[in-house]
Design goal:
Layout: E1 5-7, E2 10-12, H1 15-19, H2 22-25, H3 27-39, E3 46-54, E4 64-71, E5 77-78, E6 84-89, E7 92-105, H4 110-114, E8 127-134, E9 147-152, E10 157-159, E11 164-171
Antiparallel strand pairs: 1-2, 3-4, 3-8, 5-7, 6-7, 7-11, 8-9, 9-11, 10-11
Length: 184
């Protein structure tokens, strides 16, 4: 299996060569191993990518409706919520800070993780894209739990040796209700 185009005695990396690489061929195997960690309860946080649309044609105007709510599978690793701090604001307690999510499957693209379409276009002015971290309520039949909203704090990083994406998320306002309803 050849990797990349040869330029003299060196290899030039291309998208086509990456698709045929050993690292890419291991994605399914590594994803199966990650799923075992989720089955054992070692990855308890659900991670969702959510797209909403505002009815008045721009973000924050009108009524917000959910267009897509896609769980990242196999379940990624939320490394810690200790990067979040509660602060007192005029309207009550608010959380600020960042969280690192790793172990995101290599089958996802950077465009997908950033909420872009395939050509790389940003969401429409009426659309909003965000991440949600959800810790299901233990012992409950429903999977409802606190849904914390986040945005990307930096570009997603692909670690080919670990066959995974890592994303740093910034806490955002506008959490949905535990059952997924949007807060009016």
């Amino acid at each position: 299996m050849a990797f990349g185009d040869r330029v003299g005695r060196f290899t030039r990396v291309t998208g086509a060569s990456l698709a045929k690489s050993l690292a890419s061929s291991l994605i399914d195997v590594v994803d199966d191993a990650r799923d075992i960690a989720a089955q054992l309860g070692f990855r308890p946080y659900e991670v969702h990518l959510v797209r909403t649309r505002w009815t008045a044609g721009e973000r924050g105007a009108g009524i917000e409706a959910v267009l897509a709510d896609i769980p990242l599978l196999p379940v990624p690793k939320v490394q810690s919520l200790d990067g979040l701090a509660e602060i007192m604001t005029p309207v009550g307690l608010d959380e600020l800070g960042q969280v690192r999510v790793s172990g995101i499957s290599g089958r996802y693209s950077e465009q997908f993780l950033r909420g872009l379409d395939l050509p790389g276009n940003s969401p429409a002015p009426s659309d909003q894209f965000f991440w949600e971290l959800i810790y299901p309520t233990l012992g409950q039949v429903s999977d409802f739990g606190l849904r914390r909203r986040f945005t990307l704090a930096s570009a997603p990083f692909y670690d080919a040796e670990r066959v995974e994406w890592t994303c740093v998320l910034q806490r955002a306002r506008g959490d949905r209700q535990p059952d997924g309803r949007l807060t009016p």
